[in-house]
């Protein structure tokens, strides 16, 4: 039986982020996204929270004094897929466990390419019928548990547009959506990858050893 976890973290900030809060919704049926259970837990990171991060999630250092250490977090056993908005960030924060990842951010960019923003909050306003309810709900945004609930809503809207009959089919679609169409940086930024000069593609594949694996796949295909 496949176990799926819609997952989110809050962290100390951009510089070597450490976990301070984790939350998840357990989902089983890709057709209904019915919730089987949830969890939320805060952790002591052992380092100060950056004020920029604090301004986003409003978690203070003193809130975490009695919490378990961040390095005690363990992903629940039996999870086959992690789902999240820019899930790679959360996956890296918890130590890159060996599970498949499904990225709602990547899929949203493909499903609604004309959107002016792909943040969870912006997508909520775009996709919900009642914007007043969205505004009220977003007052709780950036707590991890609130964010996984928003992510589930966005995932449901993606599946309304692109119905899937299995989690593996959704993962395959997510993987395809991650592969970029245009060059994201450098002197060829904004150029369609299939139109990049062949000598540049060869140089990049040889020399940019830390290249994003999905960008590398796109360039290899080009």
Automatic annotation (TrEMBL):
> Which SUPFAM superfamilies does this UniProt record tie to the protein?
Ribonuclease H-like (SSF53098)
> Do you know which InterPro entries this protein is assigned to?
QSregVF_b, Ribonucl_H, RNaseH-like_sf, RNaseH_sf
Q: Does the keyword Nuclease apply?
A: yes
Looking up Gene3D superfamilies in the UniProt record yields: Ribonuclease H-like superfamily/Ribonuclease H
Q: Which residues form the Exonuclease domain?
A: 3-164
Question: Can you supply a Gene Ontology BP term from the record?
Answer: DNA metabolic process
State what protein this is by name: 3'-5' exonuclease
